[in-house]
Specification:
The chain is built from four helices and 23 strands. The protein is mainly beta and about 425 residues long. Strand 20 and strand 21 form a beta hairpin.
Length: about 425
């Protein structure tokens, strides 16, 4: 027979090890007070758990909770949550209540309610906002359902100044791995496959009104709309759209006004972009469209009357055709095209530009002072390359000739606009 009294304090930081993958951290202590009666084979606990000034920090979502107060009770029948409430680090409140109870057939049924009031978040990088909401998690553990609604008071999205054009995924294999390591990996895969079988049904309505703001890389737009998230946590189904209320795009030194802008959800979690901005340059109308999946948007230039894409960009930037551009203007054009290229997976505009002016190489870099320089040239034959390098001023230009005598013996000659010249010979091996 048991007749035990329990009291003491437990640091909440003991949960941090399990949350290390997200870098989430608890701080503070939980107070325990209760009794355990019954027998060793069938204990009957009645334990109260409370916190008074705990905190939670989740860097991944930008969420920080202060003054976390909780009152819970654990009995033989399950866990009863009287309340768990906290203040957002940036403002607003969050409150959780409900229970996880054992029924007569030993099945466990969940009933949890979460309420958000003007809760602010900011990940310090891309996302910030304020949200209200009421969500509930109901049902037995093997058939849970999440229902409720979220109202977005404000949602700010910052488009980074530059994004990588592509990320190479390396297929790395561990050859002759130790047996204990392979066994550990197999067990980890089994645990993952089991966890994937637990699906939570979804029925959540998201109302954004017109309080979504997207800014960065020349984009300034305001959108609104609503979504419904259905399906389950393994295969969510998102339906709805965010439509543009107003917007403009500053690109290549021009300001374009959006005449159409939508972010569509047609069942997939990833949205599809459908945006179009326009401006007038002399006697042509320039159209810039952004379309496709959000992870691989296509950035395209067109015009009325119809012109080649590289010609449209030259007109947009300099009010003149591509053939009439100076070397310095070609530097600026290629630099701007490279910036746009981070958003585009469509046809290579730089390749079109090289073909238009009849060159094999077009490269933009910076010198020691940070000024833009361009290299352009053509291969005369398999062994000889002739090109020019042009900096921001007329005296920085020079002609470059590269010649390969053999596979390993190479020579380079340069003649500058100031009359200086140099010749070098080098040996090169590839390992």
């Amino acid at each position: 027979a048991l007749n035990l009294r329990l009291s003491g304090n437990v640091p909440l930081s003991i949960a941090n090890a399990a949350l290390a993958a997200r870098a989430t951290q608890f701080a503070g202590r939980a107070k325990l007070d209760g009794v355990i009666e019954g027998t060793i084979s069938r204990p009957k606990p009645v334990i109260r758990i409370s916190t008074s000034n705990a905190s939670l920090t989740d860097p991944a979502s930008g969420l920080k909770l202060n003054r976390l107060v909780g009152r819970l009770s654990a009995t033989e029948g399950g866990l009863q949550i009287e309340t768990i409430s906290a203040d957002g680090g940036l403002g607003g409140t969050i409150e959780l209540s409900g229970a996880v109870l054992r029924e007569g057939n030993d099945a466990i049924r969940t009933r949890l309610n979460l309420e958000l009031a003007k809760l602010r978040f900011n990940d310090r990088r891309l996302l910030a906002g304020e949200v209200d909401g009421k969500l509930s998690l109901l049902g037995p553990l093997d058939n849970l359902a999440a229902r409720g609604s979220l109202f977005i008071r404000r949602f700010d999205v910052t488009v980074p100044a530059a994004t990588p054009r592509s990320i190479a995924v390396l297929d790395i294999k561990h050859i002759n791995a130790p047996r204990q390591l392979t066994a550990k990996l197999r067990n980890k895969k089994r645990r993952r496959s089991k966890s994937r079988t637990a699906k939570v049904a979804l029925d959540i309505f998201v109302d954004a009104a017109n309080r979504i703001f997207v800014r960065g890389r020349g984009l300034d737009a305001q959108l609104g709309g609503s979504l419904r998230v259905a399906g389950n946590t393994s295969v969510p189904v998102v339906e709805g759209a965010f439509a543009m209320e107003r917007g403009r795009l500053d690109i290549l030194g021009r300001r374009l006004d959006f005449r159409r802008g939508r972010i569509l959800f047609d069942g997939e979690l990833e949205p599809v972009l459908d945006m179009e901005a326009t401006t007038t340059v002399d006697d042509i109308t320039v159209l810039v469209t952004i379309s496709g999946a959000a992870s691989k948007p296509v950035f395209k230039f067109s015009s009325v009357p119809e012109l080649p894409e590289d010609e449209v960009i030259a007109r947009l930037l300099f009010n003149k055709g591509l053939v009439g551009l100076s070397p310095l203007q070609l530097v600026q054009l290629a630099d701007e095209v490279n910036k746009i290229g981070g958003l585009s997976t469509g046809p290579g505009i730089v390749e079109q530009l090289k073909r238009s002016v009849g060159i094999d190489v077009l490269d933009v870099s910076t010198d020691k002072t940070g000024a833009a320089t361009v290299s352009a040239g053509r291969y005369v034959n398999d062994k000889t390359y002739v090109g020019v390098k042009q900096g921001p001023d007329s005296k920085s230009g020079r002609v470059v000739i590269d010649h390969d005598f053999t596979k390993n013996l190479k020579a380079r000659g340069e003649v500058g606009a100031d009359g200086n010249s140099k010749v070098g010979v080098g040996l090169e091996w590839n390992y």
